[in-house]
Structures are given as structure tokens and as C-alpha cells.
Specification:
1 helix; alpha+beta
């Protein structure tokens, strides 16, 4: 009789142990497998993502243009930076809201994170923002060149050498260095015979 009781207790203990294992270890294995699968999917998506900044053009025009009163006078400072970036990857980039744009001086003295503006065309507020220009859909298809306009009405660019950085939502980055130079003053050339010799002089206008 005692042996039967002992055997019965052992069977119950085995069943309880099996239930505990099923309720604890199995969900952990399942969630761990899901995490691994999600990580592999993220890695695959990242491998298929690629962008390249093909051109950057800082502009010296006042914003807004004449005859309106300018919020940024331009000329010796850059109010706008236009850029063009190509989707060289194998998948579309679905939204611009999580695309990061950073503008910095190459000497490390200045850097700005430029937030995305969903207003297109962007309102002329005293702020630094970027948007697609001309306006278009909130999607970046494969092989398409995305035109970007960076408005720098709060912090116009002084002359210098800068780097524009664009990063996709999954961390793929492209960078391009460019220079914003002050306008060149036109020169005037003239001749003089004051010392009896025919000489040419050049001076800024």
C-alpha cells in the first residue's frame, strides 16, 4: 500500500514539473525565437537599404525673395541648402518622418540636427527644418532621387566647409562634404602711364 502511495505521489510530482516547464520554458523559447526572427528580418532589411547623396547646393538668395521683407537676407550667409539623394538599395523607404538629417562643420565647431517638416511647402517660420522639394508623396522608391530642401532661417550658414548627413530609419547613412563660400567681388582692370610705363592694375570694385 505504501509503495502505491509513493508511486502516486511521484506521478503527481512529475505532472506538476511538466506543467511548470511547459508554462515557463516553452514561452521563453517561443519569444526568443520570435526575437531572433525579428532581428534577422531587421538585418535583412538593413542589408537591402542604401542611399547616396549625389549633390548639395547651398543658396545665397534671400528668403522670402524680394519684394517681401526677408527673414534671412542671404548673400554672405546661406538661408537654404538644396540636396539630392538617391535610393540605391533594394527596398523603398516608406516614410520621411524618421529620416535624420544632420548638418555640421567639418572642423567640429558647429552642428545641427534638422527636424523634418510635414508641411509642404514649408511655412516660413524662424526655424531650421527640411522637407521634400518640390512636394511629393511620403515615400522614397528604389532608384528614385529625392530632392531635399533644408531651410536655415534660424541658423543661416556662414562661409565654411560643411558635411550633410542623411540617415534612414534603420540606420543606413550617407554623407557629403560641401563648401559655402562668400560671393566673389568683381574686379576692375585699368591701365596707367603715370610713370611713363604702360602698366595694368586690378582692383576690387
Amino acid at each position: 500500500m505504501d509503495k502505491i502511495v509513493v508511486v502516486g505521489l511521484l506521478v503527481v510530482a512529475s505532472i506538476v514539473t511538466a506543467v511548470i516547464v511547459f508554462n515557463t520554458i516553452i514561452p521563453s523559447l517561443t519569444s526568443g525565437g520570435e526575437a531572433v526572427a525579428a532581428s534577422r528580418l531587421d538585418d535583412l532589411t538593413r542589408q537591402q537599404t542604401g542611399i547616396k547623396i549625389v549633390s548639395v547646393m547651398p543658396r545665397r538668395e534671400p528668403v522670402p525673395p524680394a519684394p517681401a521683407t526677408p527673414l534671412c537676407h542671404g548673400d554672405t550667409v546661406g538661408c537654404i541648402v538644396d540636396a539630392w539623394a538617391k535610393n540605391v538599395g533594394g527596398i523603398d523607404i516608406a516614410s520621411f518622418a524618421n529620416v535624420d538629417v544632420i548638418l555640421s562643420r567639418t572642423d567640429g565647431r558647429w552642428a545641427r540636427y534638422i527636424p523634418y517638416s510635414s508641411n509642404c511647402p514649408a511655412s516660413l517660420a524662424i526655424a531650421d527644418t527640411w522637407h521634400r522639394f518640390p512636394c511629393g508623396e511620403d515615400r522614397w522608391p528604389v532608384s528614385d532621387i529625392l530632392p531635399i530642401r533644408v531651410n536655415l532661417l534660424a541658423d543661416p550658414l556662414p562661409p565654411g566647409i560643411y558635411e550633410l548627413s542623411i540617415t534612414t530609419p534603420n540606420g543606413v547613412t550617407s554623407r557629403r562634404v560641401f563648401e559655402f563660400a562668400p560671393p566673389q567681388l568683381p574686379s576692375i582692370a585699368f591701365t596707367s602711364f603715370r610713370d611713363g610705363n604702360d602698366e595694368i592694375y586690378v582692383m576690387d570694385s
